[in-house]
């Protein structure tokens, strides 16, 4: 068997070039991963480092009351709940408008267990929150106990908030008069019935009234609230924890950015809920 001297020398040179990387790989393999105890110690050190970040407010005593009613949209509630419940020291309650603490079904059947009834809820919450929905929201708008609760707690809450058509509930409780607010695009036109000025935006702040647009805007709303309560550094920490860096797979999500044929059809399909909500709002006026 014969060898090409040049090819042989090139091969040896290649192995020589890889030597530092092979040595590093062997050294890394020889280092044992940290034990649970060591990982806990490092986590404690990291917590201290996070607390030392300028502007970081790690602990506070916020109380958050989040309304539940049959037919609410789960994501309206779950997105903000994630951020509220992640705030160290905050107390978050899920308030049902039903007579028992049985799980409350969302519009798509996802049931969530409440922790308080209307009469048991925080008297003066830092945040009063109402999620939206479709027919379930219209039913809640027409429920005196629910509206009385929102009106009472809203008069004392530090922040009065909602996502999606939850703003229609705030409007029914008289909490949006003279305020700018948003809602799901299909319900935004109903807001003037309550003396509110509708705004086409993901999150709208007017004094202590903070409203989010439809469904997915609940994540934006939740982060905006954390920033207001704890500052930008804390909000960024939770944003990273949630890995919230949205990149929609395709364009759309608003009437203006959706194929007109689809947008027009969807608006027609959602028209009855809008009409029912408007009818309930006007019934109160008369």
Explain what you see:
The chain is an alpha/beta fold. It has a domain at 63-241: Class I glutamine amidotransferase (GATase) domain (Rossmann fold). Helices cover 45% and strands 14% of the residues. The protein has 9 helices and 11 strands. The strands form 3 sheets. A 7-stranded mixed β-sheet has the order 5-2-1-6-7-11-10, sandwiched between helices. It is globular and about 75 Å long. Mean pLDDT is 90; it is low at 8-15.
Structural descriptors:
Rossmann fold; 11 strands; two-stranded antiparallel sheet; about 45% helix; alpha/beta; about 290 residues; 9 helices; globular; seven-stranded mixed beta sheet
Low-confidence stretches: 8-15
The count of strands amounts to 11
Question: What is the straight-line distance between the termini?
Answer: 104 Å
Rounded radius of gyration (Å): 26 Å
Concise summary:
By secondary structure, the protein is of the alpha/beta class. The chain has helices at 5-30, 36-51, 74-85, 135-141, 144-154, 166-172, 217-230, 232-241, 260-285; strands at residues 63-68, 91-96, 104-105, 111-112, 116-117, 127-130, 159-163, 180-181, 197-198, 203-206, 209-212. The chain has nine helices and eleven strands.
SSE layout:
Blueprint: H1 5-30, H2 36-51, E1 63-68, H3 74-85, E2 91-96, E3 104-105, E4 111-112, E5 116-117, E6 127-130, H4 135-141, H5 144-154, E7 159-163, H6 166-172, E8 180-181, E9 197-198, E10 203-206, E11 209-212, H7 217-230, H8 232-241, H9 260-285
């Amino acid at each position: 068997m014969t060898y090409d001297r040049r090819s042989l020398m090139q091969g040896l040179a290649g192995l020589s070039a890889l030597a530092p990387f092979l040595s590093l790989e062997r050294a890394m393999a020889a280092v044992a991963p940290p034990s649970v105890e060591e990982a806990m110690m490092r986590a404690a050190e990291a917590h201290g480092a996070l607390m030392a970040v300028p502007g970081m407010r790690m602990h506070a005593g916020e109380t958050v009351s989040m309304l539940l009613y049959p037919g609410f949209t789960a994501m309206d509630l779950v997105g903000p709940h994630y951020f509220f419940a992640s705030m160290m020291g905050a107390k978050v309650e899920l308030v049902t408008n039903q007579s028992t603490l049985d799980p409350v079904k969302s519009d798509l059947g996802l049931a969530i267990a409440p922790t308080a009834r209307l009469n048991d809820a925080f008297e003066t919450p830092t945040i009063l929150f109402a999620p939206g929905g479709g027919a379930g929201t219209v039913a809640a708008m027409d429920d005196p106990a629910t509206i009385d609760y929102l009106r009472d707690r809203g008069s004392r809450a530090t922040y009065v908030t909602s996502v999606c058509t939850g703003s229609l509930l705030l409007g029914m409780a008289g909490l949006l008069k003279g305020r700018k607010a948003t809602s799901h695009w299909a319900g935004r036109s109903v807001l003037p019935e309550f003396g509110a000025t509708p705004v086409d935006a993901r999150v709208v702040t007017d004094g202590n009234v903070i409203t989010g647009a439809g469904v997915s805007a609940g994540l934006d709303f939740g982060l905006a609230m954390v920033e207001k309560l704890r500052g930008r550094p804390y909000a960024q920490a939770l944003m990273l924890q949630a890995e919230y860096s949205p990149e929609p797979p395709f364009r759309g999500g608003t009437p203006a950015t959706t194929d007109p044929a689809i947008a027009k059809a969807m608006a027609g399909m959602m028209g009855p809920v809008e009409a029912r909500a408007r009818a309930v709002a006007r019934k109160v006026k008369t």
